[in-house]
Write a structure and sequence with these properties.
0% strand, mRNA binding, 403 residues, TPR_mt, Pentatricopeptide repeat-containing protein-mitochondrial domain-containing protein, mainly alpha, 23 helices
């Protein structure tokens, strides 16, 4: 399949390490956790020491009351020795959730190792494994999350494309582009059918790794899957072309979206406007904003902010001031950086009245001008001759404060 060849050629081989599951008794796996509590010390936990038969829902309520997460593993170990011990998915999910919130990830791994043994007595759903992968992702233990995905069939639970795409997206976010192909080509072994969302993730990864050619070829795979690309498909492609300064290709993608009946949204246009602004092509950015309005796509605060940045970069203070006034009147909040650029630019032209307005708006939006900015404002307001300006410049240099 062309997708497999594309991903293999776009990335190099990876060496993801795998941890072999341990087939040892549950109590032994959990015994490495120090026993720091006595069940009888807590009224609720004391029930674990009673001879009364405990139903699974009663056990769940007992563990829900445990506030100190360091007690969870010892308490579970104690429960696992009872004759009425019965492992359940809700109990495992509760323990993992509590340990995850406490960032006790080593304890989670010890608990997870017992799943292989308990699989004979307890059925686990995909949602359970999906939540577990999210916990490992939060801990930055990506290899462990991958191991969970590929171990699911051992528990009689085959992952859906939802779990598969979660891992792919996790690798893209972590910028582990070399590992994506290894996971992608193993999809058939998991019984996962590639969908449009999977292709979107793949395109995003290829674009972020700088391989736009391969990403465009993946784009051509949508019809073969009887799927249609969407705005999320084109956004990373547009950003990739803009980052490389290849605006002909970016505008070509925009035209392709229009031909295929895919309506660009404000984020799509903002990517293009931002790219043009970074290359100093402010006028074209303004034209793109006007093009948005003609197409019925309303510019948002991000759109106006990018155009404002462009005007400020070109020191077109008059137009920038008009844009800023419009944003404020529409309830938008210009960024601290745009206020700073505006103040410094106006100080150069000694436009005291305009500086006053900008500073008032800045403060009203919760921004506090820093020392360096105040020195510039003082220079704009009180300096009357060149000698005073030179004295003030020396004072500013000694401050060494930018802001």
């Amino acid at each position: 399949m062309i997708l497999r060849r594309l991903v293999l050629s776009a990335t190099s081989s990876s060496n993801l390490t795998r941890t072999q599951p341990l087939s040892v008794p549950t109590t032994r796996l959990l015994s490495s956790s120090p026993d720091r509590y006595t069940p009888s010390a807590d009224t609720k936990l004391a029930r674990l020491t009673h001879k009364d038969w405990l139903a699974p829902n009663e056990v769940l309520k007992i563990f829900e009351t445990v506030k100190d997460p360091t007690f969870l593993i010892p308490a579970y170990r104690h429960y696992s020795k009872r004759k009425d011990y019965q492992p359940t998915e809700p109990l495992y999910a509760l323990l993992i959730n509590k340990l995850g919130h406490a960032k006790m990830f080593d304890e989670i791994e010890r608990l997870v190792k017992s799943l292989t043994v308990e699989a004979k007595r307890c059925r686990f759903s995909e949602e359970f494994f999906y939540s577990l992968m999210k916990v490992y992702a939060m801990a930055g233990r990506i290899n462990k999350a991958i191991e969970i995905l590929f171990s699911m069939p051992e528990f009689g639970c085959w992952p859906s494309v939802k779990s598969f795409n979660f891992i792919l997206n996790l690798l893209v976010k972590a910028k582990l582009f070399d590992e994506i192909h290894e996971i992608f080509v193993r999809a058939p072994k998991l019984g996962v059918e590639i969908d449009g969302c999977c292709l979107n993730i793949l395109i995003k990864g290829l674009c972020e790794s700088g391989n736009l050619e391969a990403a465009l070829q993946v784009l051509d795979e949508f019809p073969k899957l009887k799927s249609r690309p969407n705005v999320m498909t084109f956004s990373p492609l547009l950003r990739g072309f803009c980052n490389k300064g290849e605006f002909e290709g970016a505008f070509g993608l925009l035209e392709r979206m229009e031909k295929e009946g895919i309506e660009p949204d404000a984020i799509t246009f903002n990517i293009l406007i931002s790219g043009l602004r970074r290359k100093g092509r402010v006028e074209e950015g303004v034209e793109v904003m006007e093009r948005m309005k003609v197409r019925g796509c309303q510019p948002n605060s991000g759109t106006y902010q990018e155009v404002l940045y462009g005007l400020l970069d070109k020191k077109r203070n008059l137009e920038a001031g008009e844009m800023m006034r419009k944003m404020v009147s529409w309830g938008m909040r210009p960024s601290f950086l745009s206020y700073k650029k505006m103040v410094l630019g106006l100080c150069e032209t000694k436009d005291v009245a305009e500086v006053d307005w900008v500073l008032r708006q800045m403060v009203s939006h919760g921004f506090v001008p820093k020392t360096g900015m105040w020195w510039k404002v003082v220079g704009c307001v009180v300096v009357k001759n060149k000698d005073s300006q030179r004295v003030l410049d020396r004072i500013i240099d000694r401050q060494g404060t930018s802001g």
